[in-house]
Design a protein that fits this description.
Elements (H helix, E strand, L loop, with lengths): L1 H19 L14 E5 L2 E5 L3 E6 L5 E7 L4 E2 L8 E5 L2 E5 L13 H4 L10 E9 L22 E9 L8 E10 L4 E10 L5 E12 L18 E5 L15 E5 L14 E7 L6 E3 L4 E3 L3 E5 L5 H15 L9 E4 L4 H14 L3 E4 L12 H16 L3 E7 L33 H17 L3 E5 L18 H21 L3 E3 L12 E2 L11 H15 L8 E6 L19 H14 L2 E6 L6 H16 L1 H4 L2 E6 L7 E6 L7 E7 L5 E8 L8 E6 L4 E5 L5 E8 L3 E7 L1
Parallel strand pairs: 19-20, 19-26, 20-21, 21-22, 22-23, 24-25, 25-26
Antiparallel strand pairs: 1-2, 2-3, 3-4, 4-5, 6-7, 6-12, 8-9, 9-10, 10-11, 11-17, 11-18, 12-15, 12-16, 13-18, 14-15, 27-28, 28-29, 29-34, 30-33, 31-32, 31-34
Helix pairs in contact: 4-5, 8-9, 9-10
């Protein structure tokens, strides 16, 4: 018993010491450098946080996968490295067969395993540095990115088929391991240098046999998942990665016959694949590249810690999403109104004007008259140092029966996510994207707000120009969207899109709100808006989200719901700005102007000046302190261990009486060693010691119907 106690204490002190020294990767990750090395017949991918071993002989297969943060092995069996269905026949890519047990894996079994006779065989490998997948100019706008491209190593495994059946077909399996984060990505490229074309009916770019996280004899309504976050860049149809997931499937493993679940329905096999398709023809000399799947290992079940890891991943993979310009939503395209809004942006410190839905902007109109009108406005904005752009609607509308998505059940238009939608892989869709490119090239616009971006609708038409039928329709529409968004990035065009296209170049998505709530009375909007911020920043960094402020009436509600005249509702206007800029979440301030009087102008200017003074820490990740409920204080805290300001606490009091109490604030992720200096509203810092849980006690006084804030140094 004493020996066991000693070991427990030893590891507790050891982990505590590492925490104090800032060694945890979310605080200090500079020593976790990705490497790929050869050890005997194995290739080892590791960065001190994650470890993947690929045994090369007699065929390439993953034989170990470890979470080095927890010491956990996350592999229970061996599966192929990928799978392709070509000309309606299934072929494993790599892998080994012969295991008699699939509930666990012993090293001594591996040397006795055989090659699957139906599988593509390992040929050779190449190691290189990670390359850019999206071109982005980090010098265009203010951002907090550390690099324009993720850093790390890439491994390419080449596989060939051993018979004439698929002569000239090369399957490349790519792995990327990243510096400073427990993350590995995976994709495949199929190349055809053979004598004839092939049809790639479907594929699986990742197949991993995970140990089950629970072991029920009966099948539960929801299975627990392993300690891993998985998503791909083939994502759409939602405001979060989970809602937008199209490719991550947890399946039963029919080989795992020793599982406890008597129906053998344990969902313990991860497969990265499409639900349908792509059913593409690859001609001689052609190639197909899959989506990328990202596997982020996590540490336990702590929600904040795991969410911080996901947000760190987005900062690494999509650094453009750290751009966070200060913008307004203008409801008019009248040149006089637009120029006045631009002048008000200059006067208050705003950086961008977005011509909103309902403003009269039509980017599909590429006539000389329309182009000339908006080029003049863009030239005026640019001379003033302001960026300008606008709104275009793709989905959730109907064009005509020859263009719209066709429902496979009825053979008629319909069946789309928003009932009716045009098919992007029609001639109309191709022309739509071309018109937007022409508009941007000729006007010099800087921003696209792309509403209803392609949400994943399948189309059963067989007459559309850019897809053959139902099975390839989603892949082709997504490919066209991806290529267009990459073009926007290459041309320094900022992209707002109410969908999860971050890994393909989008900058912002909605934080998650109910549109009609902005027609509620102002006081309700403020608390609900703060709930939206609290909830929406678990899975997104502040710069990845936008919220909303209706300066004029929106979805009804009348005078009680709107801020205009602004000078008559300065308290509500200020409350919106304080919580939005205090969280780092930009809002669509939708209306004809930013101010109407000198007093209103001063209010806006003061809030923007404060935001810019503390901009770096206000764009840092959020620690969630207490969700708003209207009954007591609520708040959140920004943390950045690499910044001059290590933290910034925002506390709100929605009640009618002052709140005076001692609150505990977690400061672990500030990265400080023994104590912090806490300054009330940026004043003199007062030392605060940690307790053993890395918390400090702060005596707060939050005025009624108001807020307060503290800096941590």
């Amino acid at each position: 018993m004493m020996r066991i106690l000693y070991i427990i204490l030893f590891f507790s002190v050891s982990n505590f010491s590492q925490s104090l020294n800032g060694k945890y990767w979310l605080i200090d990750n500079k020593n976790y450098v990705a490497t790929i090395r050869v050890e005997g017949d194995n290739l080892i991918l590791s960065n001190g946080l994650t470890f993947r071993q690929i045994t090369l002989q007699p065929n390439a297969a993953t034989t170990e996968y470890k979470n080095l943060i927890t010491g956990e092995t996350i592999l229970r069996s061996i599966k192929p490295e990928a799978e392709v269905t070509i000309n309606n026949k299934v072929y494993p890519v790599g892998g080994l067969v012969g295991l008699k047990e699939h509930g666990y894996l012993l090293n001594e079994w591996i040397s006795n395993l055989k090659v699957d006779s139906k599988a593509f065989r390992y040929d050779s490998y190449e190691i290189s540095s990670i390359k850019k997948s999206v071109k982005w100019n980090s010098k265009k706008r203010w951002n907090t990115a550390n690099s324009e491209v993720a850093k790390g190593k890439e491994l390419r495994l080449k596989f060939r088929y051993p018979s004439e059946e698929l002569k000239g077909i090369l399957v490349n399996v790519y792995y990327e391991i990243y510096d400073g984060i427990p993350l590995i990505s995976k994709r495949i490229i199929v190349e055809n240098s053979g004598p004839k074309s092939i049809v790639l009916n479907s594929f699986k770019s990742e197949i991993l046999a995970f140990p089950e996280s629970q072991n029920p004899t009966d099948t539960p309504s929801r299975w627990l998942r392993p300690n891993i976050h998985v998503e791909s860049d083939y994502a759409f149809g939602g405001f979060t990665s989970d809602q937008a997931n199209q490719t991550t499937f947890w399946e039963p493993d029919p080989e795992y016959t020793s599982q406890v679940n008597w129906k053998m329905e344990t969902e313990c096999l991860l497969e990265a694949k499409l639900a349908i398709g792509p059913n593409l023809t690859i001609e001689n000399g052609g190639r197909f590249e899959s989506f990328r799947t990202y596997e982020l290992l996590q540490n336990g079940k702590d929600r904040e810690r795991n969410a911080l890891g996901v947000r760190k991943m987005y900062r690494v993979l999509a650094p453009w999403s750290t751009e966070n310009p200060i913008f307004m939503h203008l409801t008019s395209t009248n040149p006089k109104v637009v120029k006045n809004a631009i002048d008000q942006c200059v006067a208050t410190g705003y950086e961008m004007v977005i011509l909103s839905f309902g403003s009269g902007l039509n980017m599909e109109d590429t006539t000389a008259t329309n182009i000339n009108k908006f080029k003049k406005l863009a030239d005026y904005a640019h001379k003033k140092g302001i960026e300008i752009g606008g709104y275009s609607l793709f989905s959730s509308r109907t064009i005509n029966k020859d263009v719209d998505v066709i429902d496979i059940e009825t053979g008629e238009p319909g069946g789309a996510k928003f009932n009716n939608a045009p098919c992007l892989a029609s001639q109309w869709g191709y022309d739509y994207l071309k018109k937007l490119k022409v508009f941007f090239e000729k006007t010099g616009f800087d921003i696209l707000e792309h509403d209803g971006p392609y949400p994943g609708d399948f189309c059963a038409s067989t007459s559309h120009e850019f897809h053959k039928g139902y099975e390839d329709s989603q892949w082709m529409q997504w490919t066209m969207t991806r290529d267009f968004y990459h073009w926007l990035k290459e041309n320094d065009i900022y992209l707002n899109a109410p969908d999860f296209y971050f890994l393909q170049g989008s900058n912002k998505c909605g934080i998650g709100y109910r549109e009609v709530n902005w027609s509620l009375p102002r006081e309700q909007q403020i608390i609900l808006g703060r709930q939206n911020i609290y909830d929406g920043t678990w899975d997104k960094t502040p710069s990845m989200a936008w919220t909303f402020v209706p300066l004029t009436e929106y979805h009804g509600g009348g005078a009680e719901a709107t801020l205009e005249p602004l000078s008559e509702h300065l308290d509500a206007y200020a409350a919106h700005m304080i919580q939005n800029y205090g969280s780092g979440v930009q809002a669509c301030y939708r209306g004809p102007r930013l101010y109407d009087t000198k007093e209103t102008k001063e209010l806006v200017r003061k809030q923007i000046n404060h935001y810019k003074k503390y901009r770096k820490i206000l764009n840092a990740d959020i620690i969630h302190l207490r969700r708003p409920n209207g009954r007591t204080w609520d708040g959140f805290m920004h943390v950045d261990s690499n910044s001059k300001h290590k933290g910034l606490i925002m506390l709100f009091n929605p009640t009618k009486t002052d709140i005076k109490e001692m609150i505990k604030v977690p400061v672990y992720y500030t990265g400080t060693s023994k104590e912090v200096l806490v300054s009330y509203k940026g004043g003199m810092g007062i030392p605060h010691q940690f307790n053993r849980n890395f918390e400090i006690d702060i005596n707060v006084n939050i005025p009624a119907k108001s807020y307060t804030w503290y800096l941590i140094h």
